[in-house]
């Protein structure tokens, strides 16, 4: 997209539905700040239907998980309805999710999707993974931050606590990340000397758990041998039990439909191990736990369950999905990208110790991180419920939304919006470089807000947004300080050539 088309999209009011003057949106969010729907666009009835009771939802569910898969599911319906906004059903559904309403309005272009960030017109109470919510027993009967709407006072308390933790831990964050990367890549090298291919997923997750636990909760896994050994696998099971009914694995049909997507898993399957993590944070993360209570007015239980959710679901879960796709992008590249990245790292930071500041000077490294997030957003689905009746705009039409209706955005589709991104299906390493590239950051939505926005108590943008992109950039810089080249996929490394 050239700069004039960026300007054109902006003037088309890409972000709809301006909050009223009483809203507390900050100026740094202006690009995501919705504006009134353009009156020049035609009003259109939302196409699509929910089908017959039970049959409509089950048919959509089978398409989503089995016959089409998520990508084709959304693409086919855009073609059928000739609209990026339409009615459909999203799993989980019948037979054992009777209390879950699968009816949604899909919003699948940058303009309609951005309504999900406008807290004046939508609410996010219990909508993290749609109308389905895993039992609060997974988090000790506490409704944690990600399930709270901005209108609930507890949201501001916990969100500010999360933002504060990150600010305070920024020095520990870098030290812990770098020392755990040393351990990870030493392990990979040792294994590579004995085998042609090394699966890195579990070593990577162990590295993530150790570094994130220390940085986010202040608790050092080394102090508890059981947690040091199995903290990351406990989190894997805890995460899987909560989200399996909504996730497409696409390997075991029809067993997947029968056993993974038909009922919610009970929390007691992980209760004992979760309690061990709770005790670990209570004991070893004492300072952080006291801070939540004294500075943010949270109870001890609220503090620990929220710390565990931020650690396990948000941070560990997010990075466990994102980093393999980033490593795959770089390690499987055959276009000369590695050489360009290595040159930039050598030129700008050499062999000096990495810091967030030094990483900010790596324009290409950061662009590769952004482009990977664009094509493979780690949290593909976002939901929000209409707080009141309002008009929602796509690029070509305006639609009436009624209070209580659930909006559903599928980012892998939205981030390929051809009206915003040139050649949207192609990975372009340099896409986010230069002035044109930084303009495009306003439309990069992986964090539940634009990359140019800031997380705050009055929005639902990811609290760790900047830490995620800087950490990923630091990992890329670390790799090219250590290696001339690296070969592998999203699950294994097959060769490394040491830096000269
Ligand atoms: C690759 C890693 C990560 C990804 C992909 C990611 C993505 C997201 C997304 C999409 C949301 C919004 C969910 C929704 O409401 O629909 C979110 C929320 C959140 N994230 Fe992240 N995140 C990551 C890492 C982190 C880290 C490292 C932290 C903090 C240490 C963090 C803290 C949070 C919190 C507290 C929320 C809830 C915000 C609120 O309720 O206002 N995340 N994240």
What does this structure look like?
This protein has 500 residues and is α+β, with helices and mostly antiparallel strands. It has 18 helices and ten strands. It has a five-stranded mixed sheet with strand order 1-2-8-5-3. Helix 8 packs across helix 10 and helix 11 (286-296) packs across helix 12. It is globular, with a radius of gyration of 22 Å. It starts with a helix and ends with a strand. Mean pLDDT is 92; it is low at 1-36. Residues 124, 128, 145-146, 159, 162, 166, 216, 310, 314-315, 318-319, 322, 378-379, 382, 446-448, 460, 462-464, 467-468 line the site of protoporphyrin IX containing FE. Protoporphyrin IX containing FE is lined by residues 124, 128, 145-146, 159, 162, 166, 216, 310, 314-315, 318-319, 322, 378-379, 382, 446-448, 460, 462-464, 467-468.
H and E string:
HHHEEHEHHEHHHHHHHHHEEEEHHHEE
The SS-based structural class is alpha+beta
Shape descriptor = globular
* Distinct bound molecules: protoporphyrin IX containing FE
In spatial order, strands of the major sheet run: 1-2-8-5-3
Parts with pLDDT < 50 across at least 5 consecutive residues: 1-36
Radius of gyration, whole Å: 22 Å
Terminal CA distance: 38 Å
Number of helices: 18
Helix content: 40-55%
Give the DSSP E fraction (strand runs of 2 or more residues).
5-15%
Overall pLDDT: 92
Number of strands: 10
Biggest β-sheet: count, sense, barrel? 5 strands, mixed
SSE topology sketch:
Blueprint: H1 3-11, H2 55-67, H3 69-81, E1 85-89, E2 103-107, H4 110-113, E3 122-123, H5 153-168, H6 170-192, E4 198-199, H7 201-217, H8 225-243, H9 255-260, H10 268-284, H11 286-296, H12 300-331, H13 337-348, H14 356-360, H15 363-375, E5 381-386, E6 390-393, E7 398-401, E8 406-410, H16 411-414, H17 434-440, H18 465-482, E9 483-488, E10 492-498
Parallel strand pairs: 2-8
Antiparallel strand pairs: 1-2, 3-5, 4-10, 5-8, 6-7, 9-10
Helix pairs in contact: 2-3, 5-11, 6-7, 7-8, 7-12, 8-10, 8-12, 10-12, 11-12, 12-15, 13-18, 15-18
The protein binds protoporphyrin IX containing FE.
Protoporphyrin IX containing FE (HEM) binds at residues 124, 128, 145-146, 159, 162, 166, 216, 310, 314-315, 318-319, 322, 378-379, 382, 446-448, 460, 462-464, 467-468.
